Amino acid sequence: MMKQTLALIVSGIISTGLFSCRHSRQIARTSFPVADTSHQANTADSASIAAANTFNTEMLAKLRSNYISFNTFSAKLKVDFETEAKQMSGISVNLRMQKDSIIWISASAPIIGEVARAVITPDSLKAIDKFHKIAYLRGMKDAKDILHIPFDFRTLQDLIIGNPVYLTDSVYQVVKTPAVVSFACDSTVFTSLFNVLADDYILQQSKVIDKDSTRNRSVELTYGEYKSMDKGKFATRRQVYVEDKKYTKINMEFNKIDFDQPISLPFSIPSSYSRE
Predict the structure, then answer these.
(1) For 83-130, how does the pLDDT look when each residue is reduced to its tens digit (9 = 90+)?
(2) Mean pLDDT value across residues 13-20
(3) pLDDT at residue number 190
(4) From CA 173, how far away is CA 63, in angstroms rounded?
(5) Which PROSITE patterns match (predicted)?
């Protein structure tokens, strides 16, 4: 249960989404106009190329202007998830972050109460399974056996806040519609696809695809029901769809959000717990 719970909490909060509708409570899966992620030769004239480059530069600047910056962050949310083997619903999650330092997560199940607590730093992941009285101690490099996805601390931090991840300047395959702008870009390990709303350039959906096709691994992130806050617009509804041999679907609903307020990060391992 512990590995499933941690994968749910961390992957669910940090990964990429499955469904989205901007104003409706219902989140429904959308498609990416950017279906071809190969770099194709551009046969347009120099004026068209220059105009396209200018648009791409301005688009990236507008998208990055929506980044949320913070010192501390805390939130309460409800999480449901589904795999091929099981479903869990109504998980209550408390989440707290000290920027660039600590991510603290507590998960509670209906009736049972708190079942897991985790602390993630740039170097380590520590977690306790209160139900089975087990403590898990991992260096970040070894945490993939629990989370099943590669990440670093800053990427995890951005995913929780809702900032774009694996966004680079290598923009291509731009598709513009009156409502949505879609594009692809490359990082070292991944190809990333983005749908951003054309009026204010906030994220509607993103998809991260492993460049190593033998892994057949991807994660989709979708964002909905944005709430305007002092720090910017925050997506209070998200869904995640992870494909890596098997699938995981996760739905999240944030119901309390605070920025730059004092936070506590209690974590201790009872002496009676076994350690793995």
Answers:
(1) 777 777 888 999 999 999 999 999 888 888 888 898 999 988 888 888
(2) 32
(3) 87
(4) 17
(5) PROKAR_LIPOPROTEIN
17 has pLDDT over 50:
no
Map out the domains of the chain as residue ranges: 2-259
CATH 3.30.300.30 fits 2-259, yes or no: no
